[in-house]
TrEMBL record:
It comes from Anaeromicrobium sediminis. It comes from the Bacteria. This is UPF0033 domain-containing protein. InterPro entries: TusA-like, TusA-like_sf. Residues 9-33 form the UPF0033 domain. Pfam families: TusA. Belongs to the sulfur carrier protein TusA family. PANTHER family: SULFUR CARRIER PROTEIN YEDF-RELATED.
Length: 77
């Protein structure tokens, strides 16, 4: 009990709007507090994700975890 399910989306090599569409679908399936971890290799995709979902009631962090690789974590709050 207490284990949270985590959704991981690897959108490496994908360009918008595909990552946005995949994230919206994952959000529909996720519960409050359940992290969705997105990995991308395009800074413009990371920026678009931040801009698109910052207007919603979501908790979001974004970090360049390696040179040219970003990890974005989104949770419903």
């Amino acid at each position: 009990m207490g284990d949270k399910i985590m959704i991981e989306l690897d959108v490496t090599g994908e360009f918008c709007p595909i990552p946005i569409i995949r994230i919206k679908a994952a959000l529909k399936k996720s519960d409050v507090g359940e992290p969705i971890i997105i990995t991308t290799d395009h800074s413009c995709v990371a920026q678009n994700i931040s801009e698109t979902f910052s207007k919603n009631t979501l908790s979001m962090t974004s970090e360049e975890i390696m040179n040219g690789i970003w990890e974005i974590i989104i949770k419903k709050v």
